[in-house]
Amino acid sequence: MNDAELSVSEIEELLGAYALDAVDDDERRLVDAHLLECPRCRAELAGHLEAASWMAGGGSRAPEGLWDRIADSLDDHVPALRLTVVDLDVARQAGVSAPAAAPADDGRVVSMASRSRRRLTQTLVAAVGVAAAVILVLGIVVARQENRLDDMTREVATVDLQRAAGQAYADPSATKVALAAPEGGDTKATVVVLPDGTGFVLGDPLPELPDGRTYQLWGIEGERVISLGVLGSAPTVAAFPTGGVGFTTYALTEEDPGGVPQSSNPPAAVGTV
Amino acid sequence: MGVIRTDGRLRTPATMDSETLSSASDAVLVIAISRFDEHALAEAYRRHAGAVFALSRRLLNDPTSAEEVVQEVFLRLWNSPDKFDPERGALRSYLLAQSHGRSVDLLRSEGARRRREERDAHRTAEAGYDLEHEVLDMAVAERVKLAMAQLHDNERRAIELAYLGGHTYREVAVMLDEPEGTVKSRIRAGLKKMRGLLDPADAEVTR
Q1: By C-alpha distance, which of A123, A124, A99 is closest to A112?
Q2: Helices (H), ranges, A75-224
Q3: Within this chain, do residues B107 and B24 fall inside the same structural domain, yes or no?
Q4: For residue B28, which residues of chain A lie inside 8 Å, CB to CB?
Q5: B121-157 per-position pLDDT tens digit
Q6: Which chain A residues have a beta carbon less than 8 Å from that of B140?
Q7: CA atoms lying within 13 Å on the CB side of residue A272
Q8: Residue B138 sits in which domain range?
Q9: Contact yes or no for A181/A269 (Cβ under 8 A)
Q10: Is the domain of B73 the same as that of B165?
Q11: Which of A58, A130, A148, A176 is least surrounded by CB atoms within 10 angstroms?
Q12: CB proximity under 8 Å: A 152-171 to B
């Protein structure tokens, strides 16, 4: 079976069975692909899943001790990174302000998952307390405007993000990866990862994108491709968490505002550790 | 604010107290889970684990396997909260869909298939297996039962065999001796009808 064998109406006809896991693998793949680009079918599917969930009923209590086993195993699972996109989508759904990425006064965006903010705060506080060794002079000041930034971070972030990135760049123990166009050419950006997992991406500089477009940073480890942040249209410096994951490749793609969970675009720049 | 580093991992203390947690929406819980708030995961578990377990146990007819499915579902929520797409429905729907999908995967594995055949044969021989009664045996809200009763028989049976029996629509077509396209359409039409009959805001089992 291939794409040509199913029309859109045939795929729509499958949505009910798809919601009940009653399609075969080929059909599932076709529906999956269609759902990515069809909001109407996503809405219909949501209705089918809701109806199915009612059939499942309220259930009883889960067995005694099961939660304890889950809680114990949380320590055995190194958590994956949290995606900016998720925060945005969920926050939008919940009607709360989006914490992960917000446009700055100059229209640029610096985005980090909340955990990276906490981690960055540590880095930044440390940076303030240490005499600056090397400070990279970056062309454009990056402003950050995040509703949930704590006060301390807000005070030091604008200036000291650059300072922290500069110190990271000068740290001999840091891993540095040059990102360039896949076909080769000049370096467009540099990723710097400190031994504690804090990462920075520095534009060298990155070409400014037209309005309505944004860079998105990705880390690749084996078959896992994880979003590390939505950077805005003209980023010069941003921080991100690696969560201890040993990414072997970093890539930048060009996306619509807000970023995407999975990119289908070719990388604008890519670099391997 | 505080950060505790242990074994190379960042762990943040709970950001919501128990009262806030218990009144938080599911969407807010997922945001907290994405920030490694174990209390938020515990609250999501408290709300939905019973249904997740019941559905898996119903499909697998094996409490031990069902517990493993519950564990997988909630660990997946912890490790990959981004997989939950609010556009595709509520958290409860998502968790149940995860539970259903994983349970069906297990069910369709070769060994499990044999067990199911034995189980179905046993039930048929023993009591005149009636899926409708199976549904009624579950802890389904009364209005859901009433909504299902308003479906055409052939719609209801197709949905039950697919959802609660774990069969593909092609298998259902064979079982009901009807064309595959007809079964496919009936499943879709029946689910749409149920959706129309039940206002999500009123459904007792939804949050």
Answers
A1: A99
A2: 84-94, 114-129, 151-170
A3: yes
A4: 94, 96
A5: 555 444 333 444 445 445 456 778 888 889 999 999 9
A6: 54-55, 57-58
A7: 3
A8: 130-207
A9: yes
A10: no
A11: A130
A12: 152
